[in-house]
Structures
1.
Amino acid sequence: MQEIRTLIENWVTAVHEGDLDTVLADHAPDIVMFDVPPPYDGVRGLDAYRSTWPGFFEWQRSGAVFELESLEVVEGSDVAFAYALLLCGTANELKENPALRLRLTLGLQRLGGRWIVVHEHHSFPHDDVPPAVASDEIRSLMHEWTDRTTARDLDALMEPIADEVVSYELDGEYVGKSAVREVCKSGLESTTEPITFTTPDVTITASGNLAIAWGHDHIAASERTSTFRSTRVFNHTPTGWQLIHQHLSQPSGT
């Protein structure tokens, strides 16, 4: 088992250092690799496997890491497999998503008295949100905005707002969470009457980690109601959906 662990540890070090000869060593001529990028049916043969690494090495030279975090090996007499998690990403990627890990599975066969990698599988978890789930989550978030507006809970209103949000309001453009917070604060303090904010006809479309919602906002305070056209863009992050852009308007002349 230690022989396999050493083989894998040497391979990880070689990948990080861009040492192609050592990366290729201990791999079968007919290796099959399921990689993160296409082709979907895998990379087949040592020559094809070799061709995948120069671009990865170039990316690593931009400051990315490739470090073994955990490794488990199950060994038989002539066949073994191993699975591992690796830190693989740039400093910015890992800061944005600290849980990001490359998943690795290796299949090995003992040939000629030594272990050879015959299959290799790399992947990252697929974090895209299914469109139907995204729509439900965005709709729920907007309903929460209604409750938080009625409660005049400014801190809760700001929770799903991205730090770098850009908001086109009726009276100007506001950039950043602190600027939007001041707009919301002014709105809440503009009256002592109960305030409600609803989007009864909202339409939501989503793909991957982005969603767009559009419709009409209804802002009511006592018997006064204002209606605005609204478009909102959301980005899904490890902490949930965040508003990254909104655009509010009224037709000219109203």
Note: The domain at 2-123 is CATH 3.10.450.50 (Nuclear Transport Factor 2; Chain: A,).
2.
Amino acid sequence: MGEQADPTRAADVADAMRELARERFLPAQQRARAAEDHPLPLWHGQTSSQPSTVSFMLRLLQVPVGARVLDVGSGSGWTTALLARLVGPGGVVLGLELDPELAVWGAANLDACGLPWARIDRATPGALGRPVDGGWDRILVSAAPRRMPAALVDQLGEDARMVIPVRSTMHLVERREGRTEITTHGSFVFVPLR
């Protein structure tokens, strides 16, 4: 456990990021800056994460074709679309966004990509994630809680992975054979998880 992504999946992530350019998921006034490798503002204090961080998280998540994936803090819809591209039409991706205006805008951005096996819903205030029978195969969290949220760990299925920044440290949570292992993978800056 705790291994880095294999080269095949890294190539899949790179292909997805080329196909689903960040520019498509930014407000008009930010689109010219889409190639800059740093966070860009959306609104209400939310940001579009820098491409190198998104790539790192997706490679660490090791998303298999056909997986059921939860995207917590889906924002502009970019990560939800990338996850949908990785799982393919046999998978399912649910993006959750707490900010109602951002959730509507992100859903429209996602709809424009023609990936009907993915959707973005408004997150339920006061609740983390959305449990499903059998648990999620992968969970991506793009906002930082102050401590590891047990509510999200509990939503992982068997042979599942979650990538989540806790405070300023990236964590990989792996669930296998009824055991949960957590490893850390560098420092990053994210907006707080609300």
Note: The mean pLDDT is 92.
3.
Amino acid sequence: MAELLRTHPLEAWSTAFGRLPDTVGITVEPFVAMTVVRLDAVGQGAGALLGVELPTAPNTWVPAGTGRAVWLGPDEWLLSSTTETPEELEARVRAAVLPLGGSATDVSAQRIGLRLTGARVRDVLAKGCSIDLHPQVFGRGSSAQTLLGQAGVVLLALSDAGDDHLVLVRSSFAGYLADWLLDAALEFTPTHDS
């Protein structure tokens, strides 16, 4: 029996992303395990059991081992890990939150990560995102569930300079968003006349 190879939904866009200038870099993030946590009682020792204090301030994220913990709502977080399998992450998180009345659901296949870097990244994002991305407002540790173009995304600020962002988009919208980002970055791409 032949083994199936895992391919990334945005593999076909890698060449186009590679042609962008340093001022607007777009790279496809490697696959990471992701689990959504639902938990009412954050203050009841969940942080000690999970190995990270879940952010309680709206629209924030914190480092969590090799991944991140992203606030999605008053009782909902997205946890990621670059070293655990989806099954390992879900099992570990579930074991920690189940005694507290919480739940954990593997959503690893749900979202694709795109890393946007460079001096003009905020200009590209501003073409299709209505939130204020100025670094004084949306600096490292900030996150937002918003629209980018016509796609719902989770946007994370990875730097205080406003030149490094992570966009998490549903896998089914990844191709659309990749095309949209390439189009939005077009004015910052030098043209090559033949």
Note: The CA atoms of residues 28 and 114 lie 5 Å apart.
